[in-house]
Structure formats: C-alpha cells, structure tokens
From TrEMBL, chain A:
Pfam families, sorted: VWA_CoxE
Protein name (database record): VWA domain containing CoxE-like protein
TrEMBL record, chain B:
Superkingdom classification of source: Bacteria
Alphabetized Gene3D superfamilies for the sequence: P-loop containing nucleotide triphosphate hydrolases (3.40.50.300)
Pfam families reported in the protein's UniProt record: AAA
Record domain AAA+ ATPase: where: 25-183
A molecular function (GO) term: ATP binding
Organism per entry: Oceanibacterium hippocampi
Protein name as annotated: ATPase family associated with various cellular activities (AAA)
C-alpha cells in the first residue's frame, strides 16, 4: 500500500527495514489507527522510526509523500473560503506573477504555484524552524512568509490545527549526524577497555569453581580465569587557551567520556606545545604546576599517552629554545616531546581541527612528524583509529 | 481496551497511538525522552488504565539478561546436599524465576516494565531478542520450554546512555516523549494539582519556560522538577507577586533548588543576575 513511501524513506537514509514495514501493515489491518492522516502519521512514526534523531527526516519525507492527500480525504470538512486564499496570494505573489498565473489558468493554477513557492522557500531556508524569509531577499516581498499563514484558510473548519504536525518539524534539533556526542566517544573508547581483560588463565575463579562443583554433584571442579588486568591506564594532556577555545566543547565531551570509561585516568594541561611544566588547574597554572620530568617519573611507562590539541602555533614554539609565547623555555618544545615519547611508547595525538586543513599549517606537520604520524582527527573515526593504534 | 491516558497522566495523541499499537500487536514499546518526562510512570499508568498487574524489572549496570529469565541457585543446592535435605533431588527447587518468566506465566495479562535498559551492558538487549520476540525460552537445567500463555505488554524505557542494537529496535514500537509545550504542561499540572491558583500557575509556567530557555544550562529542569517546584511554592504560600516581579536583579527564581540541580547552573544564574544589575547601574 505504502511501498512508495517506504522506499522514499529508505532513499532519505532512514534505517527502516521490511520487517517494520510489515508491522505497519499489520497494525493498520488491526485497526490501530482510525482513518485520519494524523493517526496514520503517528502510527507510521512509532513503527518506522527508532531514534529521535531520525524523526525530522521522517517528517520531511512524510510531508513530501502525503502532500495533498489530506485535502482529498477531508475536502468535505474543510471548506476554504476563497477570498482568504486570494488575500494570501496577494501577500505571497507579486503583481506580475499574479497576472502571469491568471494567464496560465486562474485560481487553481495560482494555488499550485503557491505550493511550488512554498517548496522552494522550504528548500532555500532549510534549517530555520519557521521558514521566515528575510525582507528584501525573499521572493515574497517585504512581508516575509510563514507557513502558518497558509493555513489561515483552515481556521474556519472544525477541529483542524493550523499547521500539520509533520510540517512543524519539531524534532529538528535532535538530528545529531554531525555532532560527536559523549555516547559515541564512549563506544569508541571501549576498544581500549576490552584489551585490558585479555591474558592467560592463572587465577582461581572461586564463584565458578563453587558453581561447577555443585553442578558436578560435589566433585571438585576447579576453574581458572585470566588475571584481572588493571583497567587500562591513560594519561591525557590537553592543550588549553588560544586557538583551542574554538574546540572546547569537543574536548569537554572527550574528557567527560574518558573520565567515565577509565579507572586510571590522569590529565594535565599545557599551552600550545609541551614544555617543562604541566598543570591541573588552569586558574592557578602559574603557582601550582608539576614539572614535566616529575610527571614522567610518576606515571609508569605502561600508561597510554594521549595529547589533545590543535598543534596550531608558530614553528618556533616547537623548534627553538625560548620560542614559547608565554615564558622563556630553556629547551625547545620538540626536545620535551621526544623525551615524553621515549617514556611512553603508546602515544597518540588527537587533533580537533579537521584533517583537510592540516597541510596548511606547518606546525601541524612538524608535530605529526614528531608523533611519527600518530595524529588523528577528533572525530569518531579518528578516535577509533587512535584507540587501535594504542592497543597495537 | 484502548489506552487514553488516566486521571493522573496526560497522554498526547501520538503517545496513545504508539501505546495502542503496542498493546494490539503485542510488541514491546520502547520509550525515550528527556529525564523527568514520565517514561517510567507511563508503564504504571498503562497498567492502571487497562487494569492489568504491573511487573517491574529495574536494570542496573550489573544486570544480566539471564536474570530476567531464571537463575539456578547452585550454591544452596550444594549446601542442601551436604545437609542431606530431600529437596536436593529435584533440580526445580533451585531454579529461581526471573521477572520475564513471572510475566509469562502470570494468571492475568500483565504489563512488564523493563526500566532503563541502557544502563546494562551493551550486549544486554541482544540477549533478550528471541525471548521478547517469541515470548518463550528454554530452561537448560530442567529441559522445559517456557512459553508465554498471554503475551505481556512490555514497556521498555531508555535514557539514551547507550545506543541500542538495530535488531532489537526493529522488534519494538518507538516513542520519543517530547518535552511538553505550555498547553500540555498546563494540563499536566492541573491533573496533579487540581486546586492550583490560576495566576500562580501562569506565572510559574512562564518562569519555568524562561529558565529552560536560558542558554548554556547543563541540566534543563523537566516536568517532574516543575511539579516539585510548584508543590513547594504552594506549601510556602508565596505571593504571586514574587514570581511576577521580573526584577532583573532577582533573576534567580524563588526556591530555585527544586529547578536547578547543578551548582554550575546556579552559578550561571547568579552571573546573569549580576550582569543585569550592573547594566542597570
């Protein structure tokens, strides 16, 4: 019945399967929804959409697919006074356009044209929640345009809302296809955790031994299990301030996800490049810091080292003593980087800057070389790559 | 047997359709939404509305799918065997029924609430696929197959802490409880506090929605927080004027402890109030 609709949903990259389509048909047959479009919309949404971030996509496809159907099914109920529509058209179309439409074939055509305008408007202003065109640039003149206005005509009919539910697109801001999200980060970080539980079976598993012995009707059955490795240990160094301010949200998300995921997580801050000092509290960075040497000696070499930073700075800050923008550094940043990497063999650099821009900044190139190419973008794919690198 | 909300619960039309679809087709209903929008309460209300018993299975991070079916208590059997208890000869004495089993064999068709499924391990939903689909499972210890006499109405809630597997989602109806708009919110409040003063409610709601609109809030207050707050306001018998006076210096709503649950959010409000005061001077 609604195969076209179903196929269009799939074209719009909405993950719905045949099984769900069959469920929908079954539900319709069972009479879950009565014969109104709204009920059908709700039912179809509950059946075919399984994630709130997809509801907006669904609404759009639904709007396209079933455009006009409502008018047919409820034509007897919704008598739209003609002059209202004319008034609307006056608002929406210019004089010349109106004349052109009259030449085309009168009012019917006018409505069609209006509809077309509507579509156009939607596309042009995609993303805005109200589709109000700005004065001057909008094809509709100085008044701007709002779909709720189109429905003026329907206010006179009984129990009809001014705007169709799916046209409101209320779920718009839940679409998270671009955003990183703590949840996704956590899933990516899981890779590290799994690794921590492997090993040879050399520890007595008391619970399992008791259970197996009992199952054996009292004959002792000893069970061994791998020694529980300490959960993976991670040392994260965050670049703060300056150009990193743009990426603060992504870093916050990474940090909160990592905090939940690893039992042994240590973090420090640095600015632009690694030098002889690290600190934990940005407000008291000048009074309370920890010498980098001390950090290296405190955390054993089995810590996995993660740098988070955009590596965007002047090349001098990496290559020369005294290059730092904040203080006089006795030794060059790259010396400190090498020292750190000598201690921690498992290390990666996560860069919140998109990968395609890396080549334009010489300091990113230098840092990448220092890291022996272990620099990854701070995206889900990049994180997975980084975690794979750390577990190698 | 159609669900239409109850005198204590305001259900929107889309929610009713989803619930009725789940009841009619006997498939699980997955409910998501902001914390405090009434996901768990929904199961209670469905049970009340259709007069079915409610069974609750609260999921924790350590919960295993098997625990919902049954557990074999090997240790007490071992102990009984040492003591020479007669019970030991029948393994069935040591099988403890889980919530799922109980709901399968309940004398009446029950509502089964699986609460906060996302708290469990990532594999948890997958382990329940067949059981929820066919409503049957096999008990290895006794060799019997438990089949549901009546398929229970299963309501599953999730707080979105973990992504659920596709295969699992395909077998459910889904509903996302959107944050209620002002009109619905008014209905909800009136259902809970039928004798609330009209002007107090109006002012409180506008303050509440203003708070929600504040950019940069870590945790937006939700329905349940609004209800708590209103209860407090009514208990304290604060005059409506306190809410109405939109004095920018007093940007923090009275008794904000019920609305803002995070000290950073309170700080944010204090900062805003400070800025407002400075602008005025």
């Amino acid at each position: 019945m609604f195969i076209n609709f179903f196929l269009q949903l799939r074209d719009a990259k909405l993950p719905c399967s045949l099984r769900e389509y069959l469920t929908l048909t079954e539900a319709l047959k069972a009479g879950v929804a009565d014969y109104s479009v709204e009920q059908f919309y709700y039912l179809a949404r509950a059946t075919l959409v399984k994630d709130e971030k997809n509801i907006d996509k669904f609404d759009r496809v639904f709007g396209q697919c079933f455009n006009g159907i409502e008018f047919i099914s409820e034509a007897s109920e919704a008598e739209i006074p003609e002059e209202w529509l004319r008034k609307l058209a006056e608002l929406a179309l210019s004089e010349e356009e109106k004349k052109a439409i009259e030449a085309m074939g009168g009012f019917e055509k006018l409505m069609e044209e209006l509809q077309k305008r509507l579509e156009e408007q939607k596309k042009r202003h995609q993303g805005g929640s109200k589709w109000i065109g700005t004065a001057g640039t909008s094809p509709f003149g100085a008044y701007g345009y709002n779909p709720e206005g189109v429905r003026i005509g329907q206010e006179g009919s009984r129990n009809r809302r001014a705007v169709k539910v799916w046209d409101k697109r209320e779920y718009q801001n839940l679409d998270d296809s671009i955003e990183l999200g703590t949840r996704n980060i956590k899933v990516a970080l899981k890779r590290l955790r799994r690794f921590a539980r492997e090993g040879a079976a050399e520890e007595l598993d008391l619970d399992d031994t008791i259970r197996s012995t009992a199952r054996n009707a009292g004959l002792l059955d000893i069970k061994m299990r791998p020694e529980r490795h300490n959960a993976v240990k991670v040392l994260i160094l965050f670049d703060v301030g300056g150009s990193m301010d743009d990426h603060i949200r992504a870093c916050e998300e990474l940090f909160s996800a990592a905090r939940g995921e690893f039992k042994h997580l240590e973090y420090y801050y640095f600015h632009n490049c690694l030098y002889e000092k690290l600190w934990k509290d940005n407000r008291r960075r000048h009074s309370e810091f920890k010498p980098t040497f001390e950090v290296m000696h405190t955390y054993p070499a089995d810590y996995k080292l993660v740098f988070v930073g955009d590596a965007t700075m002047s090349p001098y800050e990496i290559a020369y003593p005294g290059g730092s923008v904040e203080h006089w550094n006795e030794e060059a940043g790259q010396v400190w980087m090498r020292r750190m990497l000598d201690v921690y063999s498992k290390a990666v650099w996560l860069n919140p800057v998109q990968e395609k821009y890396w080549d334009y900044t010489p300091s990113v190139q230098m840092m990448r070389e220092l890291m022996e190419n272990r620099m990854f973008p701070l995206t889900i794919a990049g994180l997975e790559g980084a975690m794979k690198e750390l577990t190698r | 047997m159609k669900f239409k909300g109850t005198d204590r619960y305001v259900a929107t039309e889309d929610l009713m359709v989803a619930v009725n679809a789940a009841i009619t087709l006997e498939r699980p209903l997955l409910i998501k939404g902001e914390p405090g929008t009434g996901k768990t309460v929904l199961a209670h209300e469905i049970a009340k509305a259709i007069g079915a018993p409610l069974m609750e299975w609260h999921i924790k991070s350590t919960t295993k799918a098997q625990q919902g079916l049954y557990e074999y208590d090997a240790v007490s059997r071992l102990r009984d065997s040492q003591l020479g208890d007669e019970k030991v000869h029948d393994i069935r004495n040591y099988i403890k029924k889980g919530k799922l089993w109980e709901s399968f064999t309940a004398p009446e068709r029950p509502v089964l609430l699986i609460d906060e499924i996302d708290k469990a391990d990532i594999e948890f939903p997958n382990d329940l696929l067949l059981e929820l689909d066919r409503m049957q499972f096999f008990v290895y210890e006794t060799g019997e197959t438990v089949v549901a006499e009546r398929r229970p109405i299963v309501v599953i809630t999730s707080n979105n802490e973990k992504e659920l597997p596709d295969a699992f989602l395909r077998r459910c109806f889904f509903h996302y409880i959107r944050f209620p708009d002002t009109e619905t919110m008014k209905e909800i409040v009136e259902v809970h506090f039928p004798n609330v003063q009209k002007d107090l409610l109006r002012e409180a709601l506008s303050v509440f929605f203003e708070v929600r609109e504040t950019p940069g809030l870590k945790k937006k207050p939700s329905t349940s927080e609004l209800l708590d707050w209103l209860k407090l306001l009514m208990a304290e018998e604060l005059p409506v004027e306190v809410l109405r006076s939109r004095d920018p210096a007093k940007l923090i709503p009275p008794l904000h402890g019920a609305l803002l649950k995070n000290e950073q959010d309170v700080h944010l409000f204090e900062r805003l109030a400070f800025l407002a005061r400075r602008e005025r001077n």
